[in-house]
Amino acid sequence: MIQHPKVAVVILNWNGRIHLEQFLPSVYNSSYPNLELIIGDNASTDSSISFLKENFPLIRIIANDKNYGFAEGYNQVLTHVDADYFILLNSDVEVTPGWVEPVIALMEKDKMIAAAQPKIRSFLHKENFEYAGAAGGFIDKYGYPFCRGRIFDNLEKDHGQYDQTSEIFWASGAALFIRKECWLQSKGFDSRFFAHMEEIDLCWRLKLMGYKIMYCAQSSVYHLGGGTLNAENPYKTYLNFRNNLLMIKKNMPFFSSIYILFIRLWMDLLSLIKFALEGKFRNARAINKAHIYFFKHLFAHNSEQVNAEQFNAAGLYPGSIVWQYFIKKKKKFSDIF
Question: Taking the complete model, does pTM exceed 0.90, yes or no?
Answer without folding.
Answer: yes
